[in-house]
Structure formats: structure tokens, C-alpha cells
TrEMBL record:
It comes from Paenibacillus albiflavus. PANTHER family: 2-DEOXYGLUCOSE-6-PHOSPHATE PHOSPHATASE 2 (PTHR18901), PSEUDOURIDINE-5'-PHOSPHATASE (PTHR18901:SF38). Transmembrane segments: none annotated. InterPro entries: HAD-like_sf, HAD-SF_hydro_IA, HAD_2, HAD_sf, PGP-like_dom2. CDD domains: HAD_BPGM-like. SUPFAM superfamilies: HAD-like (SSF56784). GO terms for molecular function: hydrolase activity. This is HAD family hydrolase. The keyword Hydrolase applies.
């Protein structure tokens, strides 16, 4: 295996659980519940698939100004997300890949100015040879464009790379681009029906990167 490509939100840092919690708190202020399975539609992709503000308006039967809801959401979300650390095992995998001479990329449907400051805060920005985000493509996940660009930037084929994802949209994008895919769900995505993965882990602490690579290479033989 020559490369690994990480998703960001929910995989490197669990920003998705506080995102859901913040939106759910806003919904409750309007007397509406936000089911997890409904919110999960937008995980790993854009709000074009599911817009929480539009859905709230539909539930209330009246138009809600998006700016107002976003302001309420951000006040809650920023307070929750500012102290979030790396998910368990992430640093171990980055260090192992570097030690093994495996190239490291990142492919995310989020924007660069959201991702880079957090990578720098956690001291892991320099591990990545390639970072591809919403800013680089016309279509985000589940479209494979982010992963196809990552493969090109890393100089490897899909069969030579492993994607690490936490969402269905990310899994679909990785598989369409021809990568192997390891799913490491978080609290928000754990209930989703991951069917096409090559390996499912509860945490990156469950197996070392070397063990993951060996298992996937054995399955590919």
C-alpha cells in the first residue's frame, strides 16, 4: 500500500456530534425535534442534500430566516467545537504511515479555511502531502472527484490507497474512485448501514495501521 487518505470532519476530529447536538438544541427552542437519521443525510457532503434550516421551516410550516438560525446554531456549535481534540488513534496512524514511507492525503467536503487551522492547532498539518477540499472541486462527496484529485496529487492508483471515512457519503466517494475504504464511525454515524467497506473499526485504536494494511492486502489477493 502506497498511500492513505483521511476524511476530516467526524474522522480526524469528531466535529459532527457537536454539530448535530447544536442543531438539535436550536430545533428544541422552536419546539421541534431533529431525528438523527434525518440529520445524517448531510454528513460528509453539502447542505444541498439536506438543509437543516429548510427542514426546520418545513416542520414549522412557515419560513424561518436562515441567517437567524445559523447565528443561533453557530453560537452553540462554536462553544462545543473549540476544545475538540483528535480522535483516538489518529496520531498513531499518521506517525506509522510516515515511518513506513506511506504518503498521506486528506479529502474533505469542508472548506480549506475550516480544516487547516484545526490541523495546525493539533500539530498534524505537516503530515499531509495533499489536502483536497470543497474549494478544489465542483462536486463534493459522494461524488468521487475529491478522491480522484487526491490520487493524482499523491501519484498513486486507487488500488494502492486506503481511504479512512466515517460517513456513507465518504465511503461511496472512496469506492467510486477505486480506493479501499476503512470506516471508523462516530456517535452520529454509527447507526448507518455501511455495506461496501473493506474494514469497519470502532476506533483506530482497535488495530494498528500495519494490521489494517495487512488485512486489506490479504483480502485483495
Amino acid at each position: 500500500m502506497k498511500a492513505i487518505v483521511f476524511d476530516f470532519d467526524g474522522l480526524i476530529m469528531d466535529t459532527e456530534t457537536p454539530c448535530y447536538d447544536a442543531f438539535r438544541e436550536v430545533y428544541r427552542e422552536y419546539g421541534v425535534d431533529l431525528p438523527l437519521e434525518t440529520f445524517a443525510q448531510c454528513i460528509g457532503t453539502s447542505n444541498d442534500v439536506f438543509n437543516p434550516v429548510t427542514y426546520l421551516s418545513e416542520c414549522l410550516g412557515r419560513l424561518i430566516e436562515e441567517e437567524v438560525v445559523q447565528e443561533q446554531f453557530l453560537a452553540k456549535y462554536n462553544a462545543k467545537v473549540e476544545s475538540i481534540e483528535l480522535r483516538p488513534g489518529v496520531l498513531d496512524y499518521l506517525e506509522a504511515a510516515t515511518r513506513l514511507g506511506i504518503k498521506i492525503g486528506l479529502a474533505s467536503s469542508s472548506q480549506m479555511d475550516w480544516i487547516i487551522p484545526k490541523l495546525k492547532r493539533c500539530g498534524i498539518a505537516d503530515y499531509y502531502i495533499s489536502v483536497r477540499t470543497k474549494d478544489h472541486v465542483t462536486r463534493v462527496k459522494p461524488d468521487p472527484e475529491l478522491y480522484l484529485q487526491s490520487l493524482e496529487a499523491l501519484g498513486v492508483s486507487g488500488s494502492e490507497a486506503i481511504a479512512f471515512e466515517d460517513s456513507l457519503n465518504g465511503l461511496r466517494a472512496a469506492k467510486q474512485a477505486g480506493l479501499h475504504c476503512v470506516v471508523v464511525p462516530n456517535d452520529v454515524t454509527r447507526h448507518l448501514p455501511f455495506a461496501e467497506h473493506d474494514l469497519l473499526l470502532n476506533s483506530m485504536k482497535e488495530k494498528s495501521l500495519e494490521e489494517v494494511i495487512t488485512e486489506i492486502e490479504n483480502k485483495s489477493c
